Amino acid sequence: MEAAPPAGPGAPPSQPQPQAQGPADPVAALLPRLRAKLFTWNILKTIALGQILSLCICGTAITSQYLAEKYKVNTPMLQSFINYCLLFLVYTVMLAFQSGPDSLFHILKRKWWKYILLGLADVEANYLIVRAYQYTTLTSVQLLDCFGIPVLMALSWFILYARYRVIHFVAVAVCLLGVGTMVGADILSGREDNSGSDVLVGDVLVLVGASLYAISNVCEEYIVKKLSRREFLGMLGFFGTIISGIQLLLVEYTDIASIHWDWKIALLFVAFALCMFCLYSFMPLVIKVTSATSVNLGILTADLYSLFFGLFLFGYQFSGLYILSFTVIMVGFILYCSTPTRTAEPAESSVPPAPSIGIDNLGLKLEENLPEAHSAFL
Predict the structure, then answer these.
(1) Please, are residues 265 and 71 in contact by the beta-carbon 8 Å criterion?
(2) With 0-12 CB in 10 A as exposed, 13-18 as middle and 19+ as buried, what is 354?
(3) What average pLDDT does range 18-38 have in this prediction?
(4) According to the UniProt record, where is the region Disordered (predicted)?
(5) What CA–CA distance (Å, rounded) separates 80 from 70?
(6) pTM of the complete model beyond 0.85
(7) In this structure, what are the phi and psi dihedrals at residue 196, rounded to the nearest 5 degrees?
(8) Positive or negative: CA dihedral 106, 109, 115, 120
(9) Backbone angles phi, psi at 71, to 5 degrees
(10) Where is average pLDDT lowest: 195-204, 214-223, 277-286, 304-313?
């Protein structure tokens, strides 16, 4: 009678419990780990910042196409010139009032030719992208603009010494799959595109402009992380105003003179300039805590926002595949941000020394390994 109780409650109940709970334990433990890995504060913040940039891009795209289609106003250089003037009045003036090695005079004396090339790449990228709206559709422009992502990754590999992992390539593939889903939605919805050779011209302009944007974004990431955001925007405003002003007089003088100005056209120009100015001012802040590649992945959702506005302005037809495309893009974006890249700078380099924790997704790396990363960063 004394041997029965320990045998009854002891042995039989203890043996089936590991068998029943064993398979469930890994699943129960995996979900919190995934939630802690993929839904951290820095990733959620990066997503929110990326969507703000997407709305700015959406605003520039909608106003450009609205000017071209509704009012027959084709002045992309004038639109960009206004933006560079705003950058000049704000950030270049800030540099002018600074003293020491970070002043406008010292920067021009040491690096004037570098910023001329940067300004030329940025001005022409803006001109070609905005000009492309006159030859092809809004959707085609924003889909082909994805060509800049692989170009950007290649430039980051060789210039910024970014070293990607397998998950980053998988994430980019997932994002591009979401873009492909959007293309399929366009075909199924029967959206009309421009016909003739102009479509080919517009597509080529987008591809060249996307490549120039990639060059500009790599330079922006380097300057923002190694130097300062104010220097980048100030010098871009200085040389961008000069280059775009000269090109404006050469290629768009007749088009500007033929505009029949009214308050609606003026309001569209103001809206474009404000959206572009906010985009230029805000993007360096996002790139500083992430990277140019992750920012470009996040702003792919601008296509969906443009579609929603196009439903009312241009008579687009909605498809459920657009929601699926948005979801796929966001999944790829989260995957990319979930794992930081490595930085493999050579031992002897003229580049100023960077933190050993890497320049891509710096905020995420600090969150994952705060004690070691903080000491290494200091």
Answers:
(1) yes
(2) middle
(3) 56
(4) 1-24
(5) 20
(6) no
(7) 95, -170
(8) positive
(9) -120, 0
(10) 195-204
Partners of 162 in the beta sheet?
343
Greatest Cα-to-Cα distance within the chain, rounded to the nearest angstrom:
108
DSSP one-letter code for 354: -
Find the distance separating the first CA and the last CA of the chain, reported in whole Å.
70
pLDDT tens readout for residues 153-186: 999 898 888 888 898 899 899 988 888 887 777 6
Strands (DSSP E) found in 177-282: none
Using CA atoms, how far apart are residues 117 and 101, in angstroms rounded to an integer?
A: 21
**81 within 8 A of 75, measured Cβ to Cβ:** no
Using only the alpha carbons of the chain, give its radius of gyration: 25
**Where in 67-181 does DSSP place strands (E)?**
162-163
Query: pLDDT digit string (tens) for 187-203?
Result: 676 655 554 447 778 88
Can you spell out the DSSP letters for 294-351? HHHHHGGGHHHHHHHHHHHHT-PPP-HHHHHHHHHHHHHHHHHHHS--EE---SS-SS
206-216 burial, b for 16+ CB within 10 Å, e for fewer?
bbbbbbbbbbb
More confident residue, 56 or 300: 56
- Residue 74 phi/psi, 5-degree rounding, is -120, 80
DSSP string, 42-95: HHHHHHHHHHHHHHHHHHHHHHHHHHHHHS----HHHHHHHHHHHHIIIIIHHH
What pLDDT, in 10s, does the model give residues 98-119? 888 888 888 898 888 999 999 9
Q: Are 124 and 209 in contact (CB under 8 A)?
A: yes
Amino acid at 12: P
The residue among 308, 296, 274, 145 whose CA lies nearest residue 217 is: 296
Q: d(Cα 162, Cα 157) in Å, to the nearest integer?
A: 5
